Each structure stands twice: as structure tokens, then as C-alpha cells.
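Form 7-S
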Amino acid sequence: MEKGVLEQVGFIMGDWIPKEASIAVAVGRSYVYCKLGIQESHIRVGDEVADGSVADCTYKEGKRLEMLVEDEVSGIAYVGVGYPVRISGQAGVLVVMLPPDYRQRPKQPLRFLTGKLEDTWRPVPISDVSHIESSQKKTWFYADEEAYCSIHTLKTLKDQLPDTFLPIHRSYIVNIPFIQEISRDFSSNFVLTLKDGAVLPVSQNYTALVRERLGF
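Output:
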């Protein structure tokens, strides 16, 4: 792969991974590309892949792996994530190096959701969203009596929402301040009536969680 293409890959990845990370690409037994971030790395283009390193272990395992590593030169520890790749028909490895405490850092919850309403896209403050629904292979969120279509899946959103959001069903997540009342249906399952009039079922798999979070 030409240097220019590798630089473009590094630039694109830099948009997606945290700024602390450093990136290295190895082909065969040597590194062909490096992009340094805040996380210090002594890997340089042309260096050989060291035995026991993230790149070496990724080559041997042939799959994504993550390991805590101590840099032999600086003595600084980092989290290394390796991905097997193919570059110009050759086996290669992409290595992302992160600070050792990165996995423990809390993620910032979403502050807004952008959804499509008719032919326009609108950012909506997360506090205005009453609930989120997965229906017909699409994700919808509801705010101010409007239904917005989101590009995100319910599963992806679940880990990014503030703690006021509560999963109640595999197809529904509700924003607790919008709950008006909790009752039972004819099958004695819980249902939630929201302030906008929406009535949402609570599946049996989520009943214990709902009772615990809402304290009843």
C-alpha cells in the first residue's frame, strides 16, 4: 500500500478513535506506518515487530486482541488493540495504542439526538425525548409529539443515554421523567403510560429492572 493511502487511513481513523491514541501498521515483520497521538509510542517506520508485542500476538492469533503492554524503552504502560488486516494482498496488523486507564473512563452521555422528520434532519435535546422505539428495522425517537427516525440502533444508543433512560422491552427505552403512571394489562404485565399518551409494554425480562429503578 502506498504511503499516501496509509496516511489517509491514519487521518480517517484519527477522526474515530480518541486523540490520545497512537496508530501503527505492520506488514510482514516490520512497521510501514505510524501516527503518534498523546499516548507515547517508540514504534517507528521500519522497526521490526518485536516478539510478544501486540502486533506479533495479533499475527499469531489471527483475530482482534487487546492487551496491557509496557513499552520497553519508556517503561510506560498502554492498552494495545490489534486488528489483523490485508494490505496489498499481504498479511498485516493495525495496532491502536491507548492510555492504560482508557477503558475505565466514563463515556459522556448523549446530549442530543439527530433524527429525520419528513425531509429534514433535526438535532433534539436528549431531555426532550420521551422514549425510543425499534420498529420495522428502524429506530424512532419521540419528542414534542413528533416521531423522528434515527440512524442509530437501539442497542447502540442503550449504552450512550443518560441514566434517566430505562430499557423496558427489547424494542423500547423510556425517559423516566415522562412516565405518568404504571399499571397492569389484562395479562397482569406492567404497562407504562407516558405524559404524551403513549402506552408502552414492560416485558417480563425487564420487570425486575423496572421495579428496582422505579422503586416499587
